[in-house]
Design brief:
Layout (H helix, E strand, L loop, with lengths): L4 E5 L6 H18 L5 E5 L2 H10 L5 E4 L16 H6 L4 E4 L2 H6 L4 H13 L3 E6 L3 H5 L3 H12 L5 H4 L3 E4 L13 H19 L1 H6 L1 E5 L7 H5 L6 E4 L6 H8 L4
Parallel strand pairs: 1-2, 1-8, 2-3, 3-4, 4-5, 5-6, 6-7, 7-8
Helix pairs in contact: 1-2, 1-12, 5-7, 7-9
Bound molecules: phosphoenolpyruvate.
Phosphoenolpyruvate (PEP) binds next to strand 8.
Subcellular location: Cytoplasm
Pathway: Carbohydrate biosynthesis; gluconeogenesis; Carbohydrate degradation; glycolysis; D-glyceraldehyde 3-phosphate from glycerone phosphate: step 1/1
Subunit structure: Homodimer.
């Protein structure tokens, strides 16, 4: 059985107090309202992680939004996977389109980060997705295949079994333009087929693939009802406790 996951990505929002207070609200609401075994994750800025993990009480898991590709050393301003693990972090978003676009993160760099994240017993939430141009000019299957092959398919089957994938069409992130359930399902099925071709049907069947891109409490039920969609990576709507918890409750 694939895990159902709803992960919030706070991006560079919320000061320390705001983050602690929003997280406390989310934990209380999830504790009271979650009925199923879906997993709730909040990926916060680094400064919140230690405090959030002490407030989480096992109800909500903690994730980071990035980490460095080296174990340690002279990399001023960076954070290592081991440091994340030491504050109770369990997930790390790798290859978000904003990292790819604004920080020039290549598939090869993301492959290194993924390896190190796994080595430190954290779960990568590895993002793939095409731009609007790539969608419009029809190259999107090729783009996604390349991101998978260069970023992930160097992993052993044992390691691949530990990752979570997120399909996030860049044109849908923060734009209010959601992929239709049919568009999203089509790509999720395509990704699963690529995993099957590389690692076999069993692993493909058991890989959790999240959808991300202007997902909210209103469109989540139809998106999450699709056969190959196992939950969401949520940006804007994770900054409001009611909206985020309503998305989680899609799986109740
Ligand atoms: C994201 O940042 O991963 C995201 C999906 O953002 P939004 O939900 O705001 O589109």
């Amino acid at each position: 059985m694939r895990k159902k996951i709803v992960a919030g990505n706070w991006k560079m929002n919320l000061d320390y107090q705001e983050g602690v207070s929003l997280f406390s609200e989310i934990v209380n609401m999830v504790r009271d309202e979650r009925k199923g075994n879906q997993i709730a994750v909040i990926c916060s800025p680094f400064i919140h992680l230690n405090s959030l993990s002490q407030l989480a009480g096992g109800v909500v898991k903690i994730g980071a939004q990035n980490c460095h590709q080296n174990e340690s050393g002279a990399f001023t301003g960076e954070i290592s996977a081991k440091m994340l693990s030491s504050v109770g972090c369990e997930y790390v978003i790798i290859g978000h389109s904003e990292r790819r676009q604004y920080f020039a993160e290549s598939d090869e760099l993301l492959a290194q980060k993924t390896e190190l994240v796994l080595k430190n017993n954290l779960t990568p939430i590895f993002c793939v997705g095409e731009t609007l141009d790539e969608r419009n000019n029809g190259s999107y299957y090729h783009v996604l295949k390349t991101q998978l092959e260069n970023g992930l398919f160097n992993l052993s089957a044992d390691d691949f079994a530990k990752i979570v994938l997120a399909y996030e069409p860049v044109w849908a992130i923060g734009t209010g333009l959601t992929a239709t359930p049919e568009q999203a399902q089509d790509i999720h099925a395509f990704i699963r087929a690529e995993i099957e071709a590389k690692y076999g049907a069993n692993l493909a069947d058991n890989t959790t693939i999240l959808y991300g891109g202007s997902c909210n409490a209103k469109n989540a039920p139809e998106l999450f009802a699709q056969h190959d969609i196992d939950g969401g990576l949520i940006g804007g709507a994770s900054l409001k406790s009611r909206d985020f918890v309503d998305i989680i409750k899609t799986f109740n």
